[in-house]
């Protein structure tokens, strides 16, 4: 059988608000040999030492880059409370990330399932680019405790970030699948395993 569709991966869009455990879930997919494209990791590469975006970012936001790449604190301060500046930064970053994602898709085209780990999947209009959406979620009190335990995180910064993100309840309502991280790691891992088993094509 040489059905063309057998060679097109089923693409899962993995998303979730800050502190919901999305990175942990992404690692669980990797443990099951599911290729995962990490949009945040792509940004780190593009903005790291000798990164492709250092020159345009420095031109747009002078003083925010150096030999080690983008100074994330300086760049964050430049865009944190300025939506126009944030939009300007995104116009630089998003096309480059999209190209890296296209390259990743081409390199892993034989995989039956692939995950695109995209934090702002709903907010930036990427939901139509995937075959199904997985939302990682946990109770609000667990989310808040996780985020506020991070270095350099403040309640003000957390509330601002939440304001930029679609509410968790709305994400859950729009999800095709929900992965709960408010339970034990073993339980979450079983949810991920069950989903991969469900979506995997039957063996020929």
What does this structure look like?
It is a single chain. The chain is α/β, with parallel strands linked by helices and 204 residues long. Helix 2 crosses helix 5. It is built from 9 helices and 7 strands, in the order E-H-E-H-H-E-E-H-H-E-E-H-H-H-E-H. The radius of gyration is 18 Å and the shape is globular. Residues 1-5 have low confidence and may be disordered. A hairpin with a 2-residue loop joins strand 3 and strand 4 (69-70). The chain has helices at residues 22-31, 39-47, 54-60, 72-79, 83-107, 140-148, 155-164, 168-174, 185-199, and strands spanning 10-15, 36-38, 65-66, 69-70, 113-117, 132-137, 177-180. It has 2 domains: 6-35 and 114-197, 3-Layer(aba) Sandwich (Rossmann fold); 46-107, no CATH class. Strands 2-5-1-6-7 form a 5-stranded parallel sheet, with helices on both faces. A two-stranded antiparallel ribbon has the order 3-4. It is 49% helix and 14% strand.
Helix fraction, binned, reads 40-55%
The tally of helices reads 9
At the fourth level of CATH, the homologous superfamily of the largest domain is P-loop containing nucleotide triphosphate hydrolases
CATH topology title of the largest domain: Rossmann fold
Instruction: Report the C-alpha radius of gyration, rounded.
Output: 18 Å
For the biggest β-sheet, the strand order reads 2-5-1-6-7
Assembly level: single chain
- The first-to-last residue Cα distance is 9 Å
CATH hierarchy class name of the largest domain: Alpha Beta
- How much of the residues is beta strand, in percent? 5-15%
Could you state the order of secondary-structure elements as H and E? EHEHHEEHHEEHHHEH
Q: What is the count of distinct domains?
A: 2
Unreliably modeled segments: 1-5
Work out the number of β strands: 7
- CATH architecture descriptor of the largest domain: 3-Layer(aba) Sandwich
Q: Please, what is the average pLDDT?
A: 91
Helix-strand makeup class: alpha/beta
What is the overall silhouette? globular
Strand count, sense and barrel status of the largest sheet are:
5 strands, parallel
């Amino acid at each position: 059988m040489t059905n063309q569709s057998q060679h097109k991966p089923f693409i899962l869009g993995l998303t979730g608000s800050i502190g919901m455990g999305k990175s942990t879930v992404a690692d669980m997919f990797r443990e099951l040999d599911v290729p995962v494209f990490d949009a945040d990791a792509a940004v780190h590469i593009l903005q790291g030492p000798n990164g492709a975006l250092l020159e345009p970012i420095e031109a747009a936001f002078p003083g925010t880059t150096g030999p080690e790449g983008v100074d994330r604190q300086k760049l964050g301060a430049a865009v944190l409370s300025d939506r126009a500046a944030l939009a300007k930064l995104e116009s630089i970053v998003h096309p480059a990330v999209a190209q890296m994602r296209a390259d990743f898709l081409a390199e892993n085209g034989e995989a039956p399932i692939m995950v695109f780990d995209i934090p702002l999947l709903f907010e930036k209009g990427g939901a139509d680019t995937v075959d199904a959406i997985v939302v990682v979620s946990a109770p609000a009190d667990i989310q808040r405790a996780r985020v506020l335990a991070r270095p350099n995180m403040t309640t003000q910064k957390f509330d601002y970030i939440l304001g930029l993100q679609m509410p968790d309840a709305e994400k859950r309502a729009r999800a095709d699948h929900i992965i709960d991280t408010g339970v034990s790691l073993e339980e979450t891992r079983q949810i991920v395993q069950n989903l991969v088993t469900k979506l995997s094509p039957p063996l020929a």
